[in-house]
Amino acid sequence: MSSRNSVVAGSSKSAAILTMCAGVLFLASNDAVVKWLVTRYDPFQIVFVRSLIALPLTVALVCFIDGAQGLRSARLPVHVLRGVLGVGASFAFILSLKSLPLAEATALVFASPLVVAGLSAPLLKEHVGWARAAAIVVGFIGVLIIVQPGAATFQVASLLAVGASVLYALVMLSARWIDKGDSIWTMMFYMTVFAALFSAFTVFTAWPTPEFSDIFLFLGTAVAGTLGLTLISQAFRMAPAAVVAPYDYTALIWASFLGWLIWGVVPGIWTYVGAAVIIAAGIYLITSEPKSDANA
Fold first, then answer.
1. Which of 94-111 are b and which e, b meaning 16 or more Cβ less than 10 Å from the residue's Cβ?
2. Neighbouring residues of 69: CB distance < 8 A, sequence distance ≥ 6
3. Which residue, 79, 120, 177, 196, is most buried by CB atoms nearer than 10 A?
4. pLDDT tens digits for 170-228?
5. 191 Cβ contact partners less than 8 Å away, ≥ 6 residues apart
6. How far lies 6's CA from each of 1, 2, 12, 287, in Å?
7. List of residues 6+ apart from 93 with CB closer than 8 A
8. pTM attached to this predicted model
9. Rounded to an integer, what is the distance from CA 74 to the centroid of its chain?
10. What letter would DSSP give residue 180?
């Protein structure tokens, strides 16, 4: 009987991992489309149109899973804060894509779990411990390897990607303050709503003359982004974070492939070296328990 249970558990984990990888692929595809669009559109314009298209999809998803009550929350101000942080993160990341190769920008955003771990002590009063603190420092050394401040290859856009990772980390940390009755789908709904609201000012700005293909690009980024977040959220419901979270780093594989396929760009060796350091530190933080450090 125990062997049968282990087979079922293994199958469940495999399904969760495949779901996570599919979600990551959709998000990497979303980033590739956004990189294409940002050559002509302002980042806030992209956020606005993408959110406007994604909103009815998100509402339909919430109502299907949680019913109309899934559109309500007891702590609306927290969602407002997350919306501001999310729009800021999207703006910084999209703007960085204008100059950086897709794989390099993706690798730098991998620093988000490091920032989450680093800020959990002052913001959430959680114990970090020396081992996890060392992993955070090592991870940020990986960031420096990619950014290479002071080198001839240094780009200011790299700082935008790092800034995006910090804001993404704050979005993740602020989830701790959301009402316990809010589901993951409610959180997704409010992120989409406030992304549309906080970027709506772009209606009054100058827009480039749209091309027919832009319709499909904007539709693609809205669908890919929504599907990606939905699948990743579902993966975390299917298996523990320590099982599925490390597969978030497969984004670098897809970003490298799409960057080569679409733009013919292959990142330099230091991007991969730095990414490997960040990924190693991130996986350690994901798979280790904070309490274990206290006993170390």
1. bbbbeebbbbbbbbbbbb
2. none
3. 79
4. 998 998 899 888 888 899 999 999 999 999 999 999 999 989 999 999 999 999 999 99
5. 79, 82, 83, 86
6. 9, 6, 10, 20
7. 31, 105, 109, 160, 161, 164
8. 0.89
9. 25
10. T
